[in-house]
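for the writeup, i need someone to sanity check this before i put it in the appendix. the sequnce is what the collaborator sent (i think, or maybe the updated version? ugh). structure was predicted straight from it, no edits. if anything looks off just tell me and ill rerun, i have time this weekend
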Amino acid sequence: MKRFLISALTALVAVTAFAAPPDEPLYSSENGTFTFDLFSHLGYGYHAVKSDAFKASHSGEFFFNIVKFGLYPTEHLGFELGGDFEVNFVRSKKTFFGLDSKNLIQVVDFNTFEIGKTLEKPRGGFSFLTANFPLMVKGIFNSVEVGVGAEASLNFLGETNLRYEVGNTRTQKQQSDAQVNLFSYGLIATLSYDGLGLYFKYYPKGSKVLPDGSVDLNYVTVGAAFDF
């Protein structure tokens, strides 16, 4: 997770250094309005994870927008295409994860890591980075915006992590280069008012965030986003 956060912060600094979103549309005529924004919003969401292999204790995502295009044929109806950078994490207090010989994420026996010791505050999980590209149809009514659409995701840089305590000693183990499917997809809906929004995502089992042979994973996400 540390390198994930470093990558996210590096991208965040790079984007904000060059971001200068226009206050006015780039193009506007009787046929419509076209907009372009850099680093327009960020958000955090909670994953309600469903899997036959494990029970999640806390899972979620943090993302920030890098670029967004908008085309509005009318005053109250438009289309938006965005590009977001996202960190996803899945955590469990009762299930632990590792990589098999093919670097697929698997549920593992905790005794594989420590034998004959009483473990305290154990927590297992995995994380991965995603580049998301949501395509939305949006209705705009004064300061209220309602959107529905689909999201394509490019997934990369997966890792498993394991943390526990034995006595006063805290141990953390990580395994990098976990395989994640390059492409997955989901459905998305948004509701915002004056720059503050709620969003809903659904990534079905068929979207296969993780490859065949890994633990099965699908989830619903509810979160909040903030415009700049």
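The CA atoms of residues 180 and 192 lie 32 Å apart. The first helix runs from residue 2 to 18.
thx in advance!!
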